[in-house]
Specification:
Order of helices and strands of chain B: HHHHHHHHHHHHHHHHH
Mean pLDDT of chain B: 92
CATH class of chain A: Mainly Alpha
Number of strands of chain A: 4
Oligomer: heterodimer
Shape of chain B: globular
Shape of chain A: globular
Structural class of chain A: mainly alpha
Number of strands of chain B: 0
CATH architecture of chain A: Orthogonal Bundle
Helix content of chain B: over 70%
Mean pLDDT of chain A: 90
Low-confidence stretches of chain A: none
Radius of gyration of chain B: 23 Å
Low-confidence stretches of chain B: 1-7, 488-494
Strand content of chain A: 5-15%
Number of domains of chain A: 1
Chain lengths: 220, 494
């Protein structure tokens, strides 16, 4: 094989093949997928994220959360996702329609977060967990995000969002001054709003919740 | 010095043809000198930077309080800085260095206007620097393998295009009739990467596709960076250096043709196996799995070609640093690719997906295969362009054993740890926090492996620095080998 142009043509066609197949065909097939209109409830799904959740998504992005947390629930019977309670049903393409950047993730050093807003709806829990994961999940290897919080002198009234640290923890870490409070920064609040917005609690014709007793015989 | 000797050789009709050819090669080598040195030294700096971030990220994963208060070093950023420093800093720079040297030599053409190439190299490295500072500052895109923020990527693209075009121009001026298999791989890689990179940038960042189409584009790109950029460069080097050092032709010309085209056709479909079980159309996953399994063909063919060329010459591994590094890489290419095909099978993927097994696999591919082959290439190329020998065989030995033992430990450790993690994760009766706790000892051993690898990198860096600073030798020199071979000609095994 000594012909430069022929080699080049082959090289071109090889990548053109998968570019057409993997990228273009899928873009045509479901690149303009639309939200689902539920006639009973008179509204469309998925829900659009709020402005604060959208800002929180950017915090999630800049801190690189996706390198340890996936956002996709695999179908029942393939892995233990639904058994672990990470979702009632498998994730489908329509769930991600409004996400300007999709964080499916490829790693589960930590648990899947696709439905964390439904599984753990307490904002206080998330604030404590972000400040120091050991407070809520002893033995966790998640990074602490103390830099998203501010330890400051109380001016006027106490902030309603101030973290309620356990007394012995606060004492141990020198966070127990009575004239001081530990408050989340706007970025922490946005991140928590984003986490709470992560829940696919609606159904589509193509994705119904999984009902444990009816296990299909042939499914693998 | 090189040109004077070649001039004398070409004027003297009594000069044997072998000597004329050697003089010509010397001139070609000399024409690549500065671009290769610039690419190589920038790569070396990034290798050390990337190694630092690797150690920081690795330690953080079993001791999360380590440097826990620095936002710019939080795991998600340090890990990403590591990946981009070693992929776009080290691996791509060293790939450029090796690709240019190989292309010039195999085309028997001098590299023209090397100054422009050096400017392109500066732009590339400026782009990578801006990108990594951006990632540490919080501007990462969080798209795997494409984290460099959009304000740096156009610079990277332009620099790459300039570099790629230069290689093609060198190829166009070729004097050799035959196009050797390494040249196909080089041409293909230099053409494929900018295509992948520009499409991925457009469809993910500048005009983002909707929903999970992004994930398909992401993994079409990310897996192909490995398969259609680093793998071809690594294979081009292996196809050149194994026969070159041994002084015998490659086992089978026919197989090298088959290996190249089957890789070109199958590899680029395989990337979607990173999405098995995910919310993307099932047909594309099945196609990706099929392509991943078909990858067995190019891998086995290439393995036969590389390893059968070695058969009967294993003793040369005792002497030649280049050969030892390259063969270590070639063996790992076979292993990592077969593992990769297995990982695409649904029942296997169910366990390994989302675990450290994948991390082990990635490091076996990028380090145990690609980086080791590049180390071997550098040990061959650098003495020929600076006309000095490696100052210390002991440092080369340290480098080899630290890198080889370190990465093997890394791979074994995380493969086993990741497999167990996957089994436990699929068993919902084990609490998730327990699954996490059980990974910690494996992650700790990974840090130990990382420290061993770091020792190797330091030995490599010291040897290069020492070599470049040393005075040029007065007279003829002999190559630096692990030990001097008794019967063989020293020059034949270097």
């Amino acid at each position: 094989m000594n012909r430069g142009p022929l080699i080049f043509l082959g090289i071109f066609l090889a990548l053109a093949f998968s570019w057409t197949g993997v990228v273009l065909t899928n873009q045509i097939q479901y690149g303009s997928l639309t939200p689902y209109y539920d006639a009973n409830e008179g509204k469309t799904y998925p829900d659009k994220p709020s402005g604060q959740a959208e800002r929180g998504r950017l915090v999630y992005q800049d801190l690189g959360c996706l390198y340890c947390h996936s956002q996709q629930v695999r179908r029942p019977g393939f892995g233990g996702d639904t058994e672990r309670g990470w979702g009632d049903r498998q994730s489908v393409a329509r769930d991600y329609l409004y996400e300007r950047r999709v964080f499916l993730g490829t790693m589960r050093t930590g648990p899947d977060l696709r439905n964390i807003g439904a599984r753990q709806p307490s904002a206080d829990w998330h604030q404590l967990h972000l400040f120091d994961p050991q407070l809520t999940s002893p033995g966790s290897i998640m990074a602490p995000f103390r830099f998203l919080f501010e330890y400051r002198r109380i001016v006027g009234e106490r902030s309603p969002k101030a973290l309620k640290l356990p007394a012995d923890y606060a004492k141990l870490h020198g966070l127990d001054r009575t004239d001081y409070e530990l408050v989340p920064t706007p970025r922490a609040n946005a991140l928590v709003a984003y986490l709470l917005s992560l829940k696919d609690t609606y159904e589509y014709p193509e994705a119904k919740p999984y009902l444990p007793p009816k296990k299909e015989a042939g499914s693998k | 010095m090189a040109s004077a000797s070649s001039l004398a050789a070409s004027l003297n009709p009594a000069t044997p043809p072998d000597l004329t050819a050697r003089a010509e090669l010397r001139e070609i080598d000399a024409s690549t000198k500065w671009p290769v040195i610039v690419f190589l030294l920038s790569g070396l700096v990034w290798l050390l930077v990337g190694t630092c971030f690797a150690l920081i990220s690795s330690i953080k994963l079993h001791t999360p309080e380590f440097l826990g208060d620095y936002e710019w070093l939080t795991f998600g950023r340090a890990r990403t800085a590591h990946l981009n420093a070693v992929v776009y800093g080290w691996s791509t720079n060293v790939a450029f260095a090796v690709a240019f040297w190989l292309m010039a030599r195999l085309s028997r053409a001098q590299l023209r206007h090397a100054g422009l190439l050096i400017i392109a190299a500066c732009f590339w490295n400026l782009g990578v620097t801006i990108g990594i500072v951006g990632i540490l500052a919080g501007d990462s895109t969080s798209i795997e393998w494409l984290e460099i923020p959009p304000y740096a990527t156009p610079l990277l693209f332009v620099a790459y295009a300039l570099i790629g075009v230069w290689a093609v121009i060198t190829f166009r001026f070729r004097k050799s009739e035959h196009i050797y298999v390494s040249q196909w791989y080089l041409l293909a890689a230099l053409f494929w990467f900018p295509w992948l990179y520009s499409i991925a940038q457009i469809m993910l960042i500048f005009e983002a596709a909707r929903g999970t189409v992004q994930a398909l584009v992401n993994w079409w790109f990310a897996h192909n960076v490995l398969g259609l950029w680093f793998t071809p460069i690594g294979l081009a080097a292996a196809y050149y250096f194994i026969p070159k050092v041994l002084g015998k032709p490659i086992h089978s010309y026919y197989l090298s043709v088959l290996g190249f085209w089957s890789l070109a056709i199958f590899y680029n479909w395989a990337g979607v196996h990173h999405l098995i079980g995910g919310p993307v159309p099932a047909w594309v996953l099945s196609a990706g799995i099929a392509a991943s399994l078909m990858m067995v063909i190019p891998v086995v063919v290439t393995a036969i070609n590389h390893h059968l060329t070695m058969v009967g010459n294993f003793s040369a591994l005792r002497y030649s640093p280049t050969l030892r590094f390259v063969v270590f890489g070639a063996v790992n290419y076979t292993l990592v690719s077969l593992t990769g095909s297995a990982m695409a099978i649904r029942s296997f993927n169910e366990i390994t997906h989302f675990t450290h097994f994948t991390v082990a696999h990635a490091h076996q591919g990028m380090y145990a295969f690609f980086t080791m082959v590049m180390f071997g290439a550098v040990y061959y190329i650098l003495p020929r362009i600076v006309l000095k020998e490696w100052p210390s065989a002991a440092l080369i030995r340290t480098h080899f054993w630290a890198a080889a033992i370190g990465v093997t430990l890394y791979w074994l450790d995380l493969s086993i740890g990741g497999w167990l993690q996957g089994l436990e994760m699929n068993n919902a009766s084990i609490a998730f926090l327990d699954v996490v706790r059980h990974t910690v000892p494996w992650l700790f051993v990974r840090s130990v492996a990382g420290i061993i690898i770091t020792i190797g990198h330091l030995a490599f860096a010291v040897n290069i620095g020492w070599m470049l600073c040393a005075r040029p030798p007065a007279g003829a020199t002999t190559p630096t080998l692990f030990r001097n071979p008794p019967a063989m000609q020293a020059s034949a095994v270097r």
